[in-house]
# Entry
Amino acid sequence: MSNNQSIQSTISKTTKSLYAEALASQRANDNQKALSYYIQVLEQIHSIDDVTQDIDQFQFHIYLSVCDIYIQQYERSSANVFIDKALQVAHKLQQQDKVAKCLNLRGKIKSLEGDYDGALSDHNKSIEIQLKIDGNEGLNVSDAYEMIGNIYSHQGKYDDAISMYEKSLKIGLSALGDNHPNIA
# Structure
């Protein structure tokens, strides 16, 4: 049985429908509606007695989506709550790529809060984990370098910022090519 089939057999049609509505609302930038749907989905997931690894994976992605919405709305304390939940699930799943993703996002939140030292620490931990996993520098590492560059720029450390931006760009070019819309 595939992961998708396992999730589908455990999650009700109502929950799946709510999740589809949440995704559609988020894509349409109707964040309040998306949040409402995501919270309903989480409530239904929390009522499941036999939580499988697939359900944890599903929950992880919902926590990240909710965190992203709260970041966009500058509700950093709520974003912190959901990134911490996502990080707990990532540790439970023992999936270091997910831990790295959470650390990178938590670093972004800390940067928005003005905690640049904490943000740098989280971004650097994320990079360290990603390099151990991939053995090379992927797009997650590129994102972390870009965020570190942003922090250095905010701190007035422009030479350091440029160095990080160059590292990010080099990885992005290598991974995506120079014709990709994310490469400017």
